[in-house]
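forwarding from the other thread:

> can someone predict this with NAP?

sure thing
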Amino acid sequence: MPDLPDTMRAIVAVAPGDPDVLELRDVPRPSPGPGQVLIRVAAAGVNPVDAKTRSGAGSARFVGDDGWPWIPGWDLAGTVVEAGFGVARFAEGDRVFGTVAFPYPAGAYAEYAVAHVSQISRSPRSLDDVHTAALAMGGLTAWQALVDAGGLETNQRVLITAAAGGVGHLAVQIAADLGAHVIAVASPDNVDFVRGLGAYEIVDRTQPDWAAGIAPVDLVLDAFGGPAREPAVSTLRPGGTIVTLPAANRPVTPEGVNDPFVFVAPDGLELQLLTGSVERGALKPHVSETLPLADAARAHELVASGGTRGKIVLTID
Ligand SMILES: NC(=O)c1ccc[n+]([C@@H]2O[C@H](COP(=O)([O-])OP(=O)(O)OC[C@H]3O[C@@H](n4cnc5c(N)ncnc54)[C@H](OP(=O)(O)O)[C@@H]3O)[C@@H](O)[C@H]2O)c1
């Protein structure tokens, strides 16, 4: 085992608030417990829930009043530097990634973080750490919404809103790889991008009545919610299913529509499935911006603006 420092650099939010509550500080380094590994984090994926939680919404209720100062972040990619008691699956030097501990604090915006072995997977050999960090929460959410909750099957028609976003761009690729007919909803700037991901039809969400004229679909993955939900629901066949991802302000479900709620769960085995898809060339995360750890506040501003194509990733050198 290498000589590890007792402290580490991490982004810390002392209390809920605006992005400027995020500060780079020296804090104690965590140690792995039984069944856990210690990871030297190379890259941390930035998700909308990171910014929502920092502001006191999102998963702040799972952070709890005693959970501040809080180190944000759930998505990480890096290298195992220490295996805890009883760990056989991973060893020092393994490249791993995952969505860790969600919705409880994981502290991915840091030089070191611990993760239970059941929540991580080996990283794809064909991806660097930055792109690997962009895969975890978006990929797990897409898989759990399309397959686990939505029961998507080959040849079914699936409509995906916010198709260019962190979840959406992976969902388009996963659904297309499963043999579904993918209808992507995006703004004009993202048409070529979502077409390149495997979308068969592309709908311009900036047009009024954008949902009119879409032949009935079996499944909707609504990654935007709010104003997108009603037109998205109108495209469903009788007995169809909509999975709406934003948890806040969920509207009433119309009669005859299945409306399962997905709350993404860490899952190392599903990450292995995603890793396999990456290695086959069927899935590729897109990173639109890479920022150093010290710029976490800027990353939160960007992700909260809602205009992200693919993902934003923080690097930790
Ligand atoms: N329930 C869960 O477990 C779970 C898990 C993960 C994420 N989520 C939630 O799901 C949502 C999506 O996450 P994400 O990571 O994909 O977010 P994201 O990366 O921030 O999504 C950005 C995308 O939203 C699209 N967009 C912006 N304004 C829009 C509008 N008015 N109507 C429709 N689309 C618009 C943009 O594409 P265009 O400009 O091309 O439209 C952009 O590419 C977030 O609210 C997140 O918190 C929930």
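Residues 138-244 form a domain with the Rossmann fold fold (CATH 3.40.50.720). thats all i got for now
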